[in-house]
Amino acid sequence: MRATIRMLASVKPARYLEAGNPTGLTGLLTHPAPRSALIYLYSSTLDKLKAFPESSVYRQSVEALTRHRLKVVESFKPEGYDAWAKRAQENIDANPKAFATSSGSRKSIHDGRSFVTTQYSFEDPDDREEEWNGEEMRTIREGPRVQDPSPDFRDLNEEMSRRDMRGVEWEPEPPLEAAQVSEIENQIGAGLIEEVIQVAEGELRLVGTMVEAKVWEALEEKAPQGQWDYFARDQHTPGTQEPPNR
Predict the structure, then answer these.
(1) Which of 2, 193, 196, 209 has its CB 3.0 to 4.6 Å from that of 34, i.e. a possible disulfide?
(2) CB–CB of 143/137 below 8 Å?
(3) Which element (helix H / strand E) includes 107?
(4) What phi, psi does 193 have (nearest 5°)?
(5) pTM of this prediction?
């Protein structure tokens, strides 16, 4: 079914999926680099889960699912991946300042893996065609900004990192073949790979929210005694009927 949806969205099947093409699902376009995106998302999720106690059931279940899907994705390598990885490492070694792991840098480390983030754009948007989303437009205040700086201004480290990146070209990771993408989708069993990416993005945001709220800690106000008794197992359902006496 998933392969049929994607096949109907294209005029003719090809060896590689073209980024930005329809997937067959409304509003969901073909991702340009699903393998590297999922590895980054899963590694970031595993990193954030380390803030939870090891006894946390949520951490245990999410870690198990994330590691399983990460293993599936990493088991598929695009053609020419090893040669690309070697060139990428040589690029990083030749430009240490540009790829230093600092605030605002394009290089980061998650769960022991190094990543270089890039931005993809299918087409240049036209501001005249964009509709107002109803949100209030932010204004930039004039005058000195000593305390509480406006978020519209970039951090100094970020600006310095951008300067270091000027003139440094980054070669994108080779794409997976359509057959490889289809096999990943079949092994994960959660829809198109673009849907899997959306789920991974949502899980990463959820983990961050739960870490911020410290959900593993005890409630500040303890629940009244007997509050959860109604939801206890086998409290409101009759037991198995006893067999008749013979």
Answers:
(1) 193
(2) no
(3) strand 107-110
(4) -65, -30
(5) 0.67
**Alpha carbon of residue 127 to chain centroid:** 27
Q: What is the structure's pLDDT at 15? A: 86
Q: Can you give the pLDDT at residue 142?
A: 44
Alpha helices in 75-192 (DSSP H): 81-94, 156-165, 178-188
Q: Where are the alpha helices (DSSP H) in the chain?
A: 2-8, 34-49, 57-74, 81-94, 156-165, 178-188, 193-213
Neighbours of 162 (CB within 10 A): 14
DSSP 78-106: -TTHHHHHHHHHHHHHH-TTTT--STT-S
Retrieve residue 160's tokens: 């310095």
pLDDT score, position 89:
84
- How does residue 243 score in pLDDT terms, banded at 50, 70 and 90? low
pLDDT of residue 74: 93
For residue 22, what are the β-bridge partners? 29
Has residue 3 got a pLDDT over 70? no
**Dist CA 39 CA 30 (whole Å):** 17
Distance, in Å, from the CA atom of 224 to the CA atom of 227, rounded to the nearest integer, reads: 6
